[in-house]
Amino acid sequence: MVDSDPGAVEKMERALGEGFILLCATSVKEAKQYLQDYSLDIMICEVRLGQESGLDLCRHARSIPSFQHLPIMLLTSHATLPDKVAGFNAGADDYVVKPYDARQIMARIRLLVRLKRLQYPQE
User: Fold this and answer.
1) DSSP readout, 38-104?
2) Distance separating alpha carbons of residues 74 and 44, to the nearest angstrom
3) For an engineered disulfide with 25, which of 30, 73, 75, 77 has Cβ 3.0 to 4.6 Å away?
4) 25: exposed, middle or buried (C-beta count within 10 Å: 0-12, 13-18, 19+)?
């Protein structure tokens, strides 16, 4: 998860509950390092990360061949249609507007991971 707001990270930790390992980056730079160092099942990213952009991080991830199939969910308070279109154009697979329901976010995460495993079983 990439979010500069500690409250958002805590909410996601509560939503996920047991059985998940949640790595939390607070900046694009830190997230890029996590992409290099870890094998991830999904990336959940806020659009606004202080002065940085989660959209830039999406584009970066999509520019790397080994991350072209990584499910990316944008989780943000930016709710306009142009915001959503920009998120999908940057490479996001899903766009969730805050506030969100924990059950819904879990279902969406499971769906994205399941779709990746069905489409790319070797990864």
Assistant:
1) ---S-EEE-SEETTEEHHHHHHHHHHSGGGTTS-EEEEES--SHHHHHHHHHTT-SEEEESS--HHH
2) 6
3) 30
4) buried
Nearest to 7 by CA among 70, 77, 72: 77
Residue 122's nearest CA partner among 25, 43, 39 is 39
| Residue 52 binned pLDDT confidence (cut-offs 50, 70, 90) | very high
Half-sphere exposure of 32 (CA within 13 A, CB side): 14
What predicted TM-score, i.e. pTM, was given to this entire model?
0.93
Which two three-digit tokens encode residue 91? 């490479």
Residue 115, SS3?
helix
72-83 pLDDT, tens digit each = 999 999 999 999
